[in-house]
Amino acid sequence: MNRTHRVYLWREVSFLGVFLVLFFLMHCKENETENGNNPSNPGSKGMNVNPTLSIVEIPMTKVETTISFYEKTFQTKIERMTMGNTELGVFPSDGKSVSIVLTKGEGYIPSNKGVLVYFNAGEDLQPILSSVAKNGGRVVLEKTEISPEMGYFALFMDPEGNQIGLHSKK
Question: What parts of the chain have a pLDDT lower than 70?
């Protein structure tokens, strides 16, 4: 299989994955009952259990390089912290959305396999995607339409080798 076929196949698999996740989320929302039961967890009767994300940790090994990449790419200030032997880079948070933390410590291994995290890139992801390469990352998948209703996504690798997604309406 040549490189063109691998890229095409990879795009199709990625698109299918995004579509299935969004379909699953919409389907679960439709199946929730009004009395606060969570149909996916029968033991939750009477509890308002909603397994939403709270914290996302992105592994890193090169603290300065990685924090600098994300600060420049997203044009934000990342707070540096230490907890025991673990070094952290904490993205700004309004306290109402998911907290994003760059983490260096035992057991944190950067990877392009496993869970894929998508950043909300605002109205249009292209300005952020355009800054990835000049800040030390690599674009893996250019801006791609999911559907007119769901918007667009793109994928990049950070300097550590973590695969990260972007999502926007336009």
Answer: 1-49
Task: Measure the CA–CA gap between 134 and 161, rounded to whole angstroms.
Answer: 16
Q: Give DSSP secondary structure letters for 21-60.
A: HHHHHHHHHHH--TTS--TT-GGGTT--------EEEEE-
Report the alpha-carbon angle 145-151-152, nearest 5: 45
List strands edge to edge, sheet with 138-147. 117-120, 163-168, 151-157, 138-147
Cα–Cα distance, 167 to 52 (Å, whole number): 18
Terminal alpha carbon distance of the chain: 33
Query: Can you read off the two tokens belonging to residue 99?
Result: 């907290």
Which of 128, 132, 70, 125 minimizes the C-alpha distance to 102?
70
SS3 label, residue 123: coil
Work out the percent of the chain whose per-residue pLDDT is above 70: 71
Predicted TM-score (pTM) of this structure:
0.71
